[in-house]
């Protein structure tokens, strides 16, 4: 049996990689992938604690989080396509000019 600490280390590593990607990248596609990494890290935590405590609540929440991530990707790709259509690039720093 794998100890839960290993799952927590894997999850924290994925979350840190996702956070680093959000803070350093300007491309919207990398931004979207980094958010997905952070959501997957949360799912690993939910499933690991669900397995550790022996109930299915964490796995149920993980399924809802996966559904939320799928909806987030659909909306995110729509926003990225609008950025590319209006500016010819997917740089998130240019999105500030869409307000005015």
UniProtKB/TrEMBL annotation:
Tell me the membrane topology, using the record's own terms: Multi-pass membrane protein
**What are the record keywords, sorted?**
Membrane, Oxidoreductase, Transmembrane, Transmembrane helix, Transport
E.C. no: 1.6.5.9
Checking InterPro entries in the record gives: NADH_UbQ_OxRdtase_chain4L/K, NUOK/Mnh_C1-like
In its UniProt record, a GO molecular function of this protein is: NADH dehydrogenase (quinone) (non-electrogenic) activity
Q: Please classify the protein's predominant subcellular localization into one broad category.
A: membrane
One Pfam family hit: Oxidored_q2
**Is-annotated flag, keyword Transmembrane?**
yes
Q: Which regions span the lipid bilayer?
A: 6-23, 30-54, 60-84
Record's Gene Ontology CC terms?
A: membrane
Could you tell me which PANTHER family the record lists for this protein? Answer: NADH-UBIQUINONE OXIDOREDUCTASE CHAIN 4L, NADH-UBIQUINONE OXIDOREDUCTASE SUBUNIT ND4L
Q: Which NCBIfam families match?
A: PRK05715.1-2, PRK05715.1-5
The UniProt similarity line reads:
Belongs to the complex I subunit 4L family.
What's this protein's name? NADH-quinone oxidoreductase subunit NuoK
- Please give the organism: Halohasta litorea
Point out the gene that encodes the protein.
nuoK
